[in-house]
Amino acid sequence: MGAVGGVEDDAAVSCPVWCERDHDGVHYEDLVHHSRAHFVQGASGDWSDGAILARSLAFVMHLERPVGTTETWVNLAEEEGLWQVRLDVATASKLLVALRQVLNLL
């Protein structure tokens, strides 16, 4: 197998077990390992005139890792929107712990 987008063979063929992407081209998407997407329907709240107004929101979340690296990122984005954040796995894990602690207050 040849190099993928200038990335050496060993790095290009060693996909993580969660990668669902074919790496057969030189487009940006071919240079990133990408897991299956997970979708979450929910609501977010915006302050308006002293009250919180709920709005429907759909998130999509997946793992990403640039080909040839070992850094894995959690990508969380609005399904239809501009909002997006990438967190390294350590930060995402800390956020999960904190979220559980906050929800346990209920």
Can you describe this structure in just a few lines?
With 106 residues, the chain is an alpha+beta fold. Helices cover 19% and strands 39% of the residues.
Account of the protein in words:
This protein is α+β, with helices and mostly antiparallel strands and 106 residues long. The chain has one domain. It is 19% helix and 39% strand. The protein contains 2 helices and 5 strands. Strands 1, 2, 3, 4 and 5 form a 5-stranded antiparallel β-sheet that branches. A hairpin with a 6-residue loop joins strand 3 and strand 4. The N and C termini lie far apart (54 Å).
- Broad shape: elongated
Helix count, per DSSP? Answer: 2
Separation, N- and C-terminal Cα atoms:
54 Å
SSE-based structural type: alpha+beta
Unreliable residue runs: 1-9
Order of helices and strands: HEEEEEH
Strand runs, count: 5
Number of domains: 1
The percentage of residues in β strands lies in 35-45%
- Summarize model confidence as the mean pLDDT: 85
Please compute the radius of gyration using only Cα atoms.
Answer: 18 Å
Major sheet: size, sense and barrel closure? 5 strands, antiparallel
* Helix content, binned percent: 10-25%
Keywords:
19% helix; 39% strand; 106 residues; alpha+beta; disordered N terminus
